[in-house]
Every structure is written in structure tokens, then in C-alpha cells.
Amino acid sequence: MSSAVMDKAEAEAKQPASHLITATFRIRRFNPEVSEEASWEDFQLEIDPKERVLDALHQIKWEIDGTLTFRRSCAHGICGSDAMRINGRNRLACKTLIKDLNPDQPITVEAIKGLTLLKDLVVDMEPFFQAYRDVMPFLVTSGNEPTRERLQSAEDRERFDDTTKCILCAACTSSCPVFWNDGQYFGPAAIVNAHRFIFDSRDEAGEQRLEILNDKDGVWRCRTVFNCTEACPRGIEVTKAIQEVKRALITRRF
């Protein structure tokens, strides 16, 4: 590299990054080893508004306070592990841009609701995953192992295509006011994953899943608030899927 090019690069590096803004992130902190109560803590960052909330959390953890605790994995909206409440709405931190949050005001970040808070932005996901396991989220068939794939028409596949998109982030379930008040409710995500197999033409356990969801803590607890549909980062029509399961329960005996 020529000296002229090096001098230009050094000069550009010394110039202030005009694209950066100062944003305040107000994070609800909780450490059971320190206090039984959660409290809010503010962090001021110089950050590009085109960055994501996850990037801001990384900056805080890596440069300011290493004790900040949150979940994240793929960072691309596939694993669903970084669901949290951002400015009062359930979102994925890896898909939420700072510029879309009115960064002139403090950006609030807290754990999702309805599940036991363990530390900072981390909740106990076991009740959520237990409800998921309870609806038998796998293909059930009879007979011998097939010698070739189980064929299905494009029309039959389309019947449950929407509910195959679930990434188990819990954004829908933890946005549901019924779930907030009663953790025994299966919740939208479990019903969505039951729907995916109930309407699969290759599956033979639809009736069994319907009976599971016919329980007092099952599908009838839904009050059609639409919070779940609005919270879903994959755009699944959650409320519609729940209504289709209800309809299947009503019509199955006819």
C-alpha cells in the first residue's frame, strides 16, 4: 500500500463517525444473588442507528458491563433464542433495528413475560417447552418403515405451510394475557405446533392431539386478543391457526 493511500486511510480513521448517534438503552436488570427485586439501569451508547438491538446488547456486555445476561445464538432470526420485550413489544433483538425504535427516546429492553425470570433478560423456558412436547410435535404413522418417502400433494402441504415456520422463540406465548395469568395454559406456540401435524395428511394422531388440546388448559382458553399474531417474528397467522383447531374440535364429531 502506497504512503498516500495509508495517509488517507489514517485521516479518515481520525475523522468523527458522523453516522453514529447517542442512544440510551434502559434495561431491566435482575440478579437473584443481589436483590429479590428487578430494577432499571441506563446505558448510553455511541452506535450506528442501522445496527440491531442485539448489537447494542453486545456492546454493553463486551465493553461496559460483562454481567449483563441474555440469550442469543444465530443472530439471524432463525434460532429464536433472543426474544425479549423491546419498547413494550415482544421482538427478536437480532431483527430489530435501532432506527426503527425512535432512538431519541430511551429504548427499553426487558425479559419476556409469563415465565419465571432467572437473571436480567433470561427466563426459564422449561414450561414453554413442556407444553410443546405435550402436543406431540412429530409425525405419527402406523405400519412398517416406508421404503420410500411419504408422498404428499402440494395442496395438502399448503394446508399447514404457515405453521411450519415456528422457531419456538416464545414471542407469541409470552405476549398472551391468558398465559400471563395462568401458566398452565398450553399457549399459542404449542397450539401452532399441534396444528402443523393435525392438518398433515400423512399423520395419524390428529385426533389424539385434538383431545389433548380439548383440555381445560387447552385451545378453549384463547380469547382471540391477536397479541400472538402481532408478536410473531415469522409472520405466522397464529390466531387463525388457533381458530382452525377450535373448528376441527367442533366439527370432528360430525
UniProtKB/TrEMBL annotation:
Its cofactor is [4Fe-4S] cluster; [2Fe-2S] cluster; [3Fe-4S] cluster. It is an enzyme of class 1 (oxidoreductase). The keyword Repeat does not apply. GO terms for biological process: respiratory electron transport chain; tricarboxylic acid cycle. GO terms for molecular function: 2 iron, 2 sulfur cluster binding; 3 iron, 4 sulfur cluster binding; 4 iron, 4 sulfur cluster binding; electron transfer activity; metal ion binding; succinate dehydrogenase (quinone) activity. Residues 156-178 form the 4Fe-4S ferredoxin-type domain. It comes from the Bacteria. It catalyses: a quinone + succinate = fumarate + a quinol. Pathway: Carbohydrate metabolism; tricarboxylic acid cycle. Keywords: 2Fe-2S, 3Fe-4S, 4Fe-4S, Iron, Iron-sulfur, Metal-binding, Oxidoreductase, Tricarboxylic acid cycle. Residues 32-115 form the 2Fe-2S ferredoxin-type domain. Gene3D superfamilies: 3.10.20.30, Alpha-helical ferredoxin. Binds 1 [4Fe-4S] cluster. CDD domains: fer2 (cd00207). Its EC number is 1.3.5.1. Belongs to the succinate dehydrogenase/fumarate reductase iron-sulfur protein family. This is Succinate dehydrogenase iron-sulfur subunit. It comes from Streptomyces oceani. The lineage of its organism: Bacteria, Bacillati, Actinomycetota, Actinomycetes, Kitasatosporales.
